[in-house]
Model the fold of this input.
Amino acid sequence: ATQSLIMSHLLQPTVVLLKDGSEQAQGKSHVIHNVNACQAVSEIVRTTLGPRGMDKLIYNNSGNVTITNDGRTVIDLLDIVHPAAKTLVDIAVAQDNEVGDGTTSVVVLAAEFLKQAKQFIEDGVHPQTIIRAYRTSQQLLLAKIDELAINYKNASQSTSLREVLERCAQTALQSKLISNNREFFGKMAVDAVQQLDEKELDLNLIGIEKVAGGSVTASELVLGVAFKKTFSYAGFEQQPKSFVKPKILCLNVELELKAEKENAEIRLNDPSKYQSIIDAEWNIIYKKLEQIVKSGAKVILSKLAIGDLATQYFADRGLFCAGRVPEGALKRVCNATGSVTQTSLGDLNDGILGVCGKFEEKQIGNDRYNFFTEVPESKTATIILRGGAEQFIEETHRSLWDALMIVKRCIQHNDVVGGAGAIEMELSKYLRNYSRSIKDKTQLIISSYAKALEIIPRQLSHNAGLDSTDILNQLRYQHAKGNIWCGVNIEDEDEGTIDAIKAFIWEPSLNKKSAIAAATEATCTILSIDETIKNAKAADAANNAKAPIPNAMPTGMPSIS
Done:
C-alpha cells in the first residue's frame, strides 16, 4: 500500500502554466535586483546635478552626437531596457512636462529612497510597511513645503514680479552649459514669457530659431515673429523685401498649376478643345491671384506651395509672398498680427487680414529670415539662438526651454523656496524630529527617508569637488540652529554654506513638491513589485493563430461533399 502511494505521488503530472521559455523572478532577491537597476541609472545621471555638474556625451548608431547635462535628455537617450528602471524614465519625463526643471533631482531622489529601503528589505521588513511609511512621509513633506514657501506677493520684502521671475530663471540656468550667461538668458526668458497671453501662457507660441555661427551672446529676442526664408521660385528676387505697416494674408491654398496627368483623365473628341481646357486652368489660377491682389495684402504667406507663376505675378505688382511656411510659424504670425488663415479666396476682407508695424527680410549667419516686428498686441515672441557648434546650440535650446518653463510656473504659482539643497536639509531635519514621536518600527523607515533627502546637498557639494561630509555637518548644524534657508556654497569652499534666499537661489515650490511626489510614487511602485514574468516569444505562427469565432461561416475553399 505504501509503495502504491509513493508511485501515485511520482505519477502526479507537473503543472505547466507558462509557455516554454518564459522567465520568472520573484522574492526578496528580486526586489533588491530592481533597486540595484534603478541605482545604476542614478549613478549615470547624478554627476550632472547642480551648477558644477558634468556633461554627458551620448552618440548613437547613426552617429548623432548629443552633449547635455539635462537629466531628462540623458535618460531618454540611454534607451533603458530594464523594466523596473523604466519607471525612472517616466518620472523624469513627468517632471519635465510638469515643471520643466529638476529632472535630475527627481531621479537621484527616487534612487536614494530605494537605497534606504533596500536595507529594510534585506532585514525582512515587508515592502508594504515601507510603502506606508514613505507615503506618510510624502504627505508630511508636501504640507511642510507649503508652510515654508515664501509667497513673493505677500512677502515682507517687496520684490517686483519681474525680479522674482528673473531670479528663478537664473537658478534654473545655473546648472546648465550657459550658466556664465545666465543673466542674459534669464532676462530673455522672462521677456519672452511676458509677451504671451497671461491666461494661457502657451510656450509653443515662443518660436526658437537656431542659427549656427557667431557668439552665444549674439542671440536675440524678437518681439514678434521671425522664421527662416522658405523655398522660393524664379521671380522671388524681384519682390520687395521690406514694408512698413503692410497688410498680411495667411492662406492654406495652393497657388500653382498642376500637371494634368497627375490629377485627371480627360477624353476629347475634338483636339482643338484641348486648348480651352488649358485656358480654363490658367483662368482659375489668374482669378485667384487677382482676388489676392484686390484684397490689398502686401505680404502673402501660404502653408502650401506658391508656384513660379504666382511668384512672378506678385513680384510684378510689388508684393511679397512665401509658400510652404511651417505650420507653427504661420500660427505665430496669425497670433501676432491678428490675421486669420484662409482655406478659400471667396471672401478676402480687412477683417481677416493681419497688420504689423514693419516687415523685412534680413540675413542672419548663412540664412535669410523673415521678420514681423512692431506688433501692437503681440501674443508671441521668437528667440534666435546663435553659437559655434551645433551641439552647443542644441544644449542652449534645452537649457532655455527649462528656464521658460520655470518662468511660466512662477507666474502661475506665487510660492518660491530656497535652492542649493536648503529646502531638502530643512525637510530632512523636520522629518527626523517627527520620526522620534512614533512608537512602532516605521520610526526607522521615516528616519531613513529623511536621511535620503540629504542626497541632494551631498551630491551638489560632491559635484563641485568639495568635501560633502564636512559640508553636510555644517548644514545640519546651521539648520538645527534655525537657519532655514542655509544651503551649499559652491563658490567658496572655506565658507561652505550660504543663505539661499539672500543669494537669490530661488526655485518655485512646485518644482520641489512635484519632485518629491514623483520620486516617492516611483519608489513605492518599484517596492510593490514582487514578481516579474517575461513572456516567451511564440515559437511559431501557429501559436499566434486567431481563435475561431463561434458560429461563424466557414472560410476557405468550398468542399464538394
Summary: The chain has 18 helices and 20 strands.
